[in-house]
Every structure is written in C-alpha cells, then in structure tokens.
C-alpha cells in the first residue's frame, strides 16, 4: 500500500513538472517587426540559430539582458545590434523577393537563396 502511494505521488509530481516545463519553455514571441507574427517556435528558433552560425555569435550579440536579470529579454530593443539585424533581414528579404522569389506562397522571410551566411561566412563584421 505504501509503495502504491509513493508511486502515485511520484507520478503526479513528474507529470506536474513535465507539463509545467513544457509550457514554460515556449512563450509566444513578442515585438516581431520583420518576421511573421504567426511564426512557429521551431521556425523562429531555426532562423535565430542560422543567424548565430552565419555571424559566429551567440544570442546576446543582439539580445539584451532583462533589467535586474541575467536572462536575455528577447523582446527588448535595448541592444542597437538588434535593429541592425532587422535591417539586414529586410535587405535579404528584399533581395530574395525581387531577384530570386519563385514561390508566391512562401513568405519572403523563409526564402534562403541569399542568406546572412552569403556575406558573413561566420564573421559578425564581414569585410573589416
């Protein structure tokens, strides 16, 4: 009987933890100004990962820490590099849309003919 109670308690704790963490890891993105508002978490994460790789940087290159926190505030515009990144994204979207777009159904932000890596090749400041 005692084993059954411990087992049930453990299962409830584990379930609560798993449900709680699965929701806490995903927060809908806020303050998107170039990327589509309905972007999925997976696609946003993939795009950000491509930025990291193309520029050879980590998330804190564009994203500022939250006030009084060590965690990054992804919605914040405190870091000026974030606006530079937005402008660079607008430029690549424009190039792909006007010169390489082949499918009108795909949002231009998702086209990958010209990417950050085209120029950056792992360097945050190419050509310097």
UniProtKB/TrEMBL annotation:
GO terms for biological process: photosynthesis, light reaction. The reaction center of purple bacteria contains a tightly bound cytochrome molecule which re-reduces the photo oxidized primary electron donor. Coiled coil: none annotated. GO terms for cellular component: plasma membrane light-harvesting complex. This is Photosynthetic reaction center cytochrome c subunit. The keyword Electron transport applies. The keyword Disulfide bond does not apply. GO terms for molecular function: electron transfer activity; heme binding; iron ion binding. InterPro entries: Multihaem_cyt_PRC_cyt_su-like (IPR023119), Multihaem_cyt_sf (IPR036280), Photosyn_RC_cyt_c-su (IPR003158). SUPFAM superfamilies: Multiheme cytochromes. It holds the Pfam family CytoC_RC. Keywords: Electron transport, Heme, Iron, Metal-binding, Photosynthesis, Transport.
């Amino acid at each position: 009987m005692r084993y059954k109670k411990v087992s049930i308690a453990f299962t409830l704790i584990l379930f609560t933890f798993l449900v709680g963490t699965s929701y806490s890891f995903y927060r809908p993105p806020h303050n998107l100004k170039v990327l589509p508002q309905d972007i999925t978490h997976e696609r946003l994460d993939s795009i950000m990962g491509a930025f990291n790789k193309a520029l050879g940087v980590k998330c804190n290159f564009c994203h500022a820490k939250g006030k009084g926190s060590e965690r990054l505030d992804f919605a914040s515009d405190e870091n000026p590099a974030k606006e530079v990144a937005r402008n660079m994204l607008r430029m690549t979207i424009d190039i792909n849309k006007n010169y390489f777009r082949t499918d009108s159904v795909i949002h231009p932000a998702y086209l990958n003919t010209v990417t950050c890596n085209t120029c950056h090749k792992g360097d945050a400041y190419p050509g310097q």
